């Protein structure tokens, strides 16, 4: 009787689907238990502290475990750190600020432990994007340096000020974490350089004012003066007491000093022309309006963000300069592109244009401004013809 009763109960449960459901549940081992628990505990909004200390995720109360030794307390969205939160890393570093989809994004402060006491001190305060320093921010380097300025993708880029541990102070432009563009370096010993930089070295026109009262004005390359004038600096009436009294330099006794100096300057510029055009930021080579005009002309022909060599020839012709294929190949080489390149980007097009303008200015005895005026007229004529 008992066996028959059990059989009838089993049939009834099977008919209701209860027995099959239980069996399926017990047999479903393809999904790890920790993953199932984590799915039940989707983190949204403000949560308690999350700890990464073991191998697996456990619990449904906001506690997470792994081997990484990281803790996080803050806001979540769709199981990702989003909003305001504080994270402490295994190294002892601490980040406090905004998050987006698990990455530091927005305003935030990074701290690091220093000294035997491991006391936290600020390392960086400012903007972040996709887990990298981005935007305006202040960085306190462990070496004692202090940078205040702009960042892009984790590197100093744009205008900024760097105070060195030895007392030197640089105020100017940066590119990819290096001094590039116009900038002033005030040395702790009283010397001061004002001029152009490239890849963290003095490159181009610049003046070095010595604490002794002398000054060198000329052309620089590879961080060294190459050609120029070395003379006594004129005193500033408002700071007369700050300029040391020095002996007057003997006069230069050359038959044609101006011609000799101009020839030396031309020689340095000519030898460094391709190097500078290849490496100098586009914003230094062209004014904003010129860059925008070049971008419009390039956009009319581009495909997949590039143009062909034939189209590059056409653009040069539109700018008022017929360039033979052999010369165009040499220009491409000068700016770091292969003469057999099938496509030229906007950056490459702008650098080829800059070289052409420089050559034109040299050949016609024009200065940089006049050569760029010629460029503006060429772009204007192109726009007018297309409009017509």
UniProtKB/TrEMBL annotation:
Q: Which superkingdom is the protein from?
A: Eukaryota
Any Pfam family matching the protein: MORN
- Residues in a coiled coil are none
Keyword set for this entry?
A: Cytoplasmic vesicle, Repeat
Q: What cellular component terms from Gene Ontology apply here? A: acrosomal vesicle
- KW NAD (keyword) present: no
Location in or out of the cell? Cytoplasmic vesicle, Secretory vesicle, Acrosome
- Main localization is cytoplasm
The record ties this protein, via InterPro entries, to: MORN, MORN3
Q: Give the protein's biological function.
A: Assembles a suppression complex (suppresome) by tethering SIRT1 and MDM2 to regulate composite modifications of p53/TP53. Confers both deacetylation-mediated functional inactivation, by SIRT1, and ubiquitination-dependent degradation, by MDM2, of p53/TP53, promoting a proliferative and cell survival behaviors. May play a role in the regulation of spermatogenesis.
Tell me what this protein is called.
Answer: MORN repeat-containing protein 3
The record lists the organism as Noctiluca scintillans (Sea sparkle)
Q: What is the lineage of its organism?
A: Eukaryota, Sar, Alveolata, Dinophyceae, Noctilucales
């Amino acid at each position: 009787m008992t066996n028959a009763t059990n059989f009838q109960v089993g049939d009834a449960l099977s008919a209701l689907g209860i027995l099959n459901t239980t069996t399926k549940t017990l047999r479903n081992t393809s999904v790890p238990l920790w993953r199932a628990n984590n799915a039940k505990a989707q983190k949204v909004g403000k949560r308690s502290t999350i700890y990464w200390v073991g191998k697996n995720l456990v619990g449904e109360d906001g506690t997470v475990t792994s081997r990484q030794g990281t803790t996080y307390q803050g806001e979540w969205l769709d199981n990702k750190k989003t909003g305001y939160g504080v994270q402490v890393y295994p190294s002892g570093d601490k980040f406090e600020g905004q998050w987006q989809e698990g990455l530091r994004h927005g305003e935030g402060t990074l701290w690091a432990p220093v000294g035997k006491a491991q006391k936290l001190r600020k390392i960086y305060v400012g903007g972040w994007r996709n887990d990298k320093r981005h935007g305006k921010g202040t960085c306190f380097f462990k070496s004692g340096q202090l940078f205040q300025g702009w960042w892009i993708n984790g590197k100093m880029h744009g205008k900024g000020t760097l105070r060195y541990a030895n007392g030197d102070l640089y105020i100017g432009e940066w590119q990819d974490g290096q001094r590039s563009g116009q900038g002033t370096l005030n040395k702790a010993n009283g010397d001061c350089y004002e001029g152009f930089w490239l890849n963290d070295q003095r490159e181009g026109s610049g003046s070095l004012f010595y604490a002794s009262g002398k000054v060198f004005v000329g052309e620089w390359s590879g961080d060294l003066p190459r050609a120029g004038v070395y003379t006594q600096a004129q005193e500033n009436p408002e700071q007369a007491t700050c300029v040391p009294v020095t002996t007057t330099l003997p006069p230069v006794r050359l038959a044609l000093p101006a011609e000799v100096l101009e020839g030396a300057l031309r020689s340095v510029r000519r030898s460094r022309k391709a190097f500078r055009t290849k490496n100098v930021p586009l914003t230094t080579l062209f004014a904003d309006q010129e860059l925008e005009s070049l971008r419009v002309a390039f956009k009319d022909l581009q495909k997949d963000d590039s143009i062909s060599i034939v189209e590059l020839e056409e653009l040069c012709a539109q700018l008022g300069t017929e360039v033979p294929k052999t010369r165009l190949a040499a220009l491409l080489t000068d700016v770091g592109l292969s003469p057999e390149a099938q496509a030229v980007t906007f950056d490459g097009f702008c650098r080829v244009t800059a070289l052409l303008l420089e050559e034109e200015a040299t050949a016609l005895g024009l200065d940089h401004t006049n050569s760029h005026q010629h460029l503006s007229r060429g772009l204007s004529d192109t726009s007018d013809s297309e409009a017509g």
